[in-house]
């Protein structure tokens, strides 16, 4: 969900492992509304997605994945005050649910521009699940924004140890590496490592083009940053 500006979310992704490996709880009605909500989200029909989620949560008020998806859809719909309250409801009701802390941390960083508060929730989520690649990438973005370059590089490196299909992860890593803008061997290796893991063809193509642009302008380390500014809104 990294968007054109930091405050705008491009898309609600429902391929996140924490949001897809659910259901099968023995309640066919709940499963049906969950599948319907995700379908509506993929089609960006957010009002219909919210309606399906309301039905789901009426049938199962403790469906934490549904509560989190509702917060993300409210955010995408531009209903930021409601989204913030919805995220708060998730983390207060389910304090050991790591995706809730990660998504609220992302919301605080990109929507509210609060890296300090974001860091708190990202660290909490990583304490619960230290193998969350996207949370590490988001924490790297926090550090890159606040001038802590070595910590940013460290968390991109940690993130690259774990696989994820979430396109948001690759977008955030690209932005972090572009923000660092250093043509060191460490940065070059991280660029190759992160994007060699991309199953998303578009991300791979964009990264390869960026690498070629960087090689053409070896004497200008800002080439990679300029290219990503063009291809990543």
Automatic annotation (TrEMBL):
InterPro entries: TPR-like_helical_dom_sf (IPR011990), TPR_rpt (IPR019734), Ycf3/AcsC/BcsC/TPR_MFPF (IPR051685). Pfam families: TPR_16. Keywords: Repeat, TPR repeat. SUPFAM superfamilies: TPR-like. It comes from Melghirimyces profundicolus. This is Tetratricopeptide repeat protein. TPR repeats lie at residues 30-63.
């Amino acid at each position: 969900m990294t968007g054109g500006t930091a405050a705008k979310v491009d898309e609600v992704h429902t391929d996140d492992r924490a949001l897809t490996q659910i259901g099968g709880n023995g309640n066919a009605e709940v499963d049906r509304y969950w599948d319907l909500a995700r379908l509506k989200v993929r089609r960006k029909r957010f009002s219909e997605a919210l309606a399906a989620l309301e039905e789901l949560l009426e049938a199962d008020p403790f469906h934490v994945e549904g509560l989190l998806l509702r917060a993300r859809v409210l955010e995408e719909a531009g209903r930021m005050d409601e989204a913030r309250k919805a995220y708060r409801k998730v983390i207060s009701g389910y304090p050991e649910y790591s995706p809730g802390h990660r998504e609220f941390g992302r919301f605080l960083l990109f929507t509210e521009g609060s890296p300090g508060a974001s860091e708190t929730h990202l660290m909490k989520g990583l304490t619960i699940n230290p193998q969350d690649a996207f949370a590490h990438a988001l924490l790297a973005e926090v550090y890159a924004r606040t001038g802590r370059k070595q910590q940013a590089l460290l968390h991109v490196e940690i993130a690259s140890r774990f696989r994820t299909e979430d396109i948001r992860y690759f977008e955030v890593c690209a932005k972090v590496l572009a923000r660092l803008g250093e043509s060191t061997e460490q940065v070059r290796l991280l660029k190759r490592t992160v994007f060699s893991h991309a199953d998303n063809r578009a991300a791979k193509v964009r990264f390869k083009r960026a690498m070629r642009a960087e090689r053409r302008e070896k004497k200008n380390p800002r080439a990679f940053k300029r290219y990503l500014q063009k291809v990543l809104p």
